[in-house]
Amino acid sequence: MPARFFSLVDLMCRAATNRFTARSPTATRPRRRAASCRRGCISLLGLLLVACAGAGDPPPAPQPQPALRIGLLLPPTEADADSITQGAELAVRELASRGTKVELIVRGRPGQWGTEGDEAAVLVHEDRADAVLAPALGASAHQVLQVAGRTRVPVVSLCPDSSVTGPGIPWTLRIVPRSDEQARAIIAALPPSGSPPRVAAVVPPERAGREAARDLMAAAAAAGAELDAPIVWDAAEMVDSVAARVRALEPALTLLWVDGARAAATVKALTRARHPGRVAVHGGLVTPEFSAAVQGSSAEILAAVPAGFGVDREPAPNLTSALSADAVRLLAEVLSRAGSSPSFLQFPLTNSFAGVTGPLRFDRYGNRVLELAVIRWRAGRWQTVTASAP
What we know:
Blueprint: H1 2-22, H2 28-55, E1 68-73, H3 81-97, E2 102-107, H4 115-125, E3 131-134, H5 138-151, E4 155-157, E5 172-174, H6 179-188, E6 198-203, H7 206-223, E7 226-227, E8 231-232, H8 239-249, E9 253-256, H9 260-272, E10 278-281, H10 288-293, E11 301-306, H11 319-338, E12 372-378, E13 381-388
Parallel strand pairs: 1-2, 1-3, 3-4, 4-5, 6-7, 6-8, 6-9, 9-10, 10-11
Antiparallel strand pairs: 11-12, 12-13
Helix pairs in contact: 1-2, 3-11, 4-5, 6-7, 8-9
């Protein structure tokens, strides 16, 4: 069809040229002008043909968006690994249902201190993770932060140690309440006694215990409570020995900042000894596993959680899983907003994001700004006691 079209155009242009030259008293110059006019007409009409033909072509198919790659570091020593994975995978499925594809890359292997940093580097450099979710273990979280500082990859941490945001890396966030915030809220919820409450604390050995002890001491000082040096629970010590050391201090409140198995064993040992004081655990133990471990105990157990996390709606709430899900959703939102731009430029975050644990707001240091609720384990379930301002 294009050949026929141009032939027809050529005939029309020649006819117009003949009429043009017939009127001219001289032939040479008008014929040259007419030939040039004919060529211009053919070119113009050809362009019109191409434009009309292209107008009918279907629009190009949209290219599929690449999946957002979020790394999850889970060392074998991470006690909350199952809950963290459960929450992260739940968030990935929810995001997929809304059209946002996320690929979750999980790494973690046994080794000496520092291995977590190697695994975090592999997540970023070899697995090409766009962001990383750091676990609750303080040593692992700090190793991930070192990698984040060098690579500018955003990190959200599940570690409650106040030192996590100490390095001041703008693209790192802590989504869990700090240990000192939790302890201070719990102490403030104690019934008034007319004198500073006496508090005991049990912490794990080594670096994790030192971090927890520092935060709990700071919380007690801020709340006007008396707290001696925390009890360090070494691996070889039996639970009855630890319980006896707690009873010797005669505390009104004992802060059990250890893993779930040791915390549950201590609760039962203190209950058998008819210890009159209250006990409290960190929010990471508001899980179905810990609830099952203390089921049947008559002890009253306190904890502090984000006020937006409704423990009253579930018989066995899982705060660790909910925080993990919020972390994945938050990272996916940041990466989506960044698009093709470097994601670290989105920080510090100035907007509030909706989360299952309440609004996700952060200060310029990466600390979450939130209201805490003190909850109580009684009669086989968690119940809200009071809420405190951030």
